[in-house]
Write a structure and sequence with these properties.
The structure is a homodimer. Chain A is α/β, with parallel strands linked by helices and about 375 residues long. In chain A, about 35% of the residues lie in helices and about 20% in strands. Chain A has 2 domains: about 35-170, NAD(P)-binding Rossmann-like Domain (Rossmann fold, 3-Layer(aba) Sandwich); about 170-320 and about 340-370, Dihydrodipicolinate Reductase, domain 2 (2-Layer Sandwich).
Chain lengths: ~375, ~375
């Protein structure tokens, strides 16, 4: 579908992005259309939770991976079992529900458990998957608290299994190129970062608006992308955070945050300011301001059609399937027995920052971010 | 130079801007090219401080006004006296320096004193001008502290003279149209505002980098535009502010702030988040996020070429001379004996917010903004 022949190498380089980056992004093959040479070597993935993200993004992405295959499903909705099994050729012995999930331990079709459940269930299912002897890929946010994150990390370490968090953006050519450009001083010295992600949420009855299931609102669900982008760009952890929250629809957002703005201090002296909302569209960007220019992505976090502009010039990069890239990277990490760059610790760090944001809102003061 | 025949009325209206606004902006005549009918009725303006802003913007703007004329100069640089007098036809009796300035009291050529001095001198010269019986137009920031602002307001009230602050943006068709569009719900209910203005400052020896002269750094000089834009758009005063500062060049910015980010809570429930810097270019915008769309100006604060976009569609408005518009409005206010919308109180309100920002930086906590 994608071809690396489309890589506009000259434009890309002239925008200050290194050849090494182009090569490293291209060779991964997520958008090169290079088929897997040996299907039997693909790692089996059990998808836990067959909601819209699994249905519309992850299951289709699995069909595009070089190193993974959808080999099992775990669902709380019996109606979905046959439909999914037929569509994706799942063995009847590899269909689970939330009660009998632990039997997956003896399923040789499954190497990786990909958890795509409401946030509050990430902790339980990560630990159960680790105890079943499976590697775990868990959607973001990693859990509802840093305490849960630490327990999930410990469980995977005890089982000697890998744990990665679904930070798909870190595998996109756009985010990688932005990071490379900033590191390579394409905009001079980085001075400030601005990032925000939000959308106007629909159905008022969905789990994302229930605190017990989601842990929080816009910040946990989409604000985390802006937070990630700042941490990814600086390569550092925020030292302190100040945040404020506003609620303009108290009924719809009775349980979770509607809109939050926050500011972060990084040890390099860089400040970042961010925003998120469940109540308006159009906020979907990261901007890096440097002493000699600026780099901007807008949209920055959509599933497709990311746009990168460096010093006023569009960087024409290939679009790719973010989930396929993320899955193939995790499979490679497992095969090579090295930790993922989006390991559980990366998820923990985001939760520590998120906890500082919520504390700052409550206490109306700057909060020092705890160390991972 | 500008003609209201260029007003693309249909596009303008379709973007959600009312006909009343178009009419009210157009009728002012700043960009309609309508000449003054009676030069003798023009109010005489004494320009105090003949630096680059006066030289490049305000003196040329005075030539375009319908209701004002440059009738006197006040300068601390003797070399400039003859040059300016020749260029603008200033009477030799209407040339002053900072020592003999008070003699302006008996100068019938002068109705308005326009103060374009370093910030720290605004207080002294506003009070001296009021005591000399002149109306005062003072550049922003109004002064170095809210205490000074209150004294300036009191001095003008005691002299029964008008005081206005040089908030030129409030007179531009772009800012007025943005405000009208937001009030008219062109983007639905306003949910959040983002605003920022900064630039990479040159000469490290200029007065803007000296605390005694400038009072502060980027925030006082250009951050104030972002603050103004938020107050102008909401029509409200911020209740509380959280702010943080970063300095990446401690030598250049030894005395004043380099970069600041801040967040404001407004009584309507709207949050605003803002930024300013003296150390990078490209930050020059205000974005209003609404429940059903967004409106954006970028650039938002330049002397010319402002750009307004509402719901993804460029609003094609005439550009105008901001200073001419501001001067003509002040002259009209004086003639009609009604207070300017950018009165001293407006300047005081900005200083109260600025003081809250600096306090929040010092105390690392949210600061309630004092009432004017």
């Amino acid at each position: 579908m994608h071809s690396n022949k489309n890589l506009p190498r000259r434009d890309f380089l002239s925008a200050g992005v290194s050849a090494a980056c182009v090569a490293s992004v291209a060779q991964a093959g997520y958008f090169s259309g290079v088929p897997s040479r040996d299907a039997s070597k693909k790692l089996g993935v059990a998808l836990v939770g067959l909601g819209s993200l699994s249905t519309n993004q992850i299951a289709p992405a699995l069909q595009k991976t070089a190193n993974c295959r959808l080999s099992a499903i775990v669902t709380g909705t019996p109606d979905k079992e046959k439909k999914w099994a037929d569509k994706y050729g799942i063995n009847s012995g590899s269909i689970y529900n939330y009660e009998n999930f632990d039997k997956i331990a003896s399923d040789e079709n499954v190497d990786i458990v990909y958890i795509v459940l409401p946030n509050s269930m990430h902790h339980e299912f990560t630990i159960r998957a680790a105890k079943a002897g499976k590697h775990v890929l868990c959607e973001k946010p990693m859990a509802n608290s840093s305490k849960e994150c630490r327990e999930m990390i410990a469980a995977c370490e005890a089982a000697n299994k890998q744990l990665a968090i679904g930070y798909r953006c870190q595998f996109t050519s756009h985010h990688l190129s932005l990071q490379t450009a900033v590191k390579g001083k394409a905009i001079g010295d980085l001075k400030m970062i601005e990032a925000g992600f939000g959308f106007r949420i629909g159905d008022p009855n969905q789990w994302r608006l229930k605190k017990a299931l989601a842990g929080g609102g816009a910040l946990m669900d989409v604000g985390i992308y802006a937070l990630q982008a700042c941490r990814f760009l600086t390569g550092n952890e925020p030292i302190s955070i100040m945040a404020q929250e506003t609620k303009t629809d108290a009924a719809k957002f009775a349980e979770v945050d509607e809109s939050i703005t926050w500011m972060m201090k990084f040890p390099s002296g860089i400040d970042a300011y961010c925003s998120t909302s469940y109540n308006f569209n159009g906020l979907n960007k990261v901007i890096a301001y440097g002493s000699n220019g600026l780099a901007k992505m807008d949209p920055a976090y959509s599933y497709s059609d990311l746009q990168l502009e460096i010093n006023g010039k569009k960087v024409d990069l290939p679009q790719q399937d973010h989930f396929a890239a993320e899955l193939d990277d995790f499979a490679t990490c497992i095969r090579e027995n090295r930790p993922s760059k989006v390991s559980g610790k990366e998820g923990l760090r985001d939760l520590l920052a998120i906890e500082a944001i919520y504390q700052s809102i409550d206490k109306r003061t700057s909060i020092d971010v705890q160390k991972a």
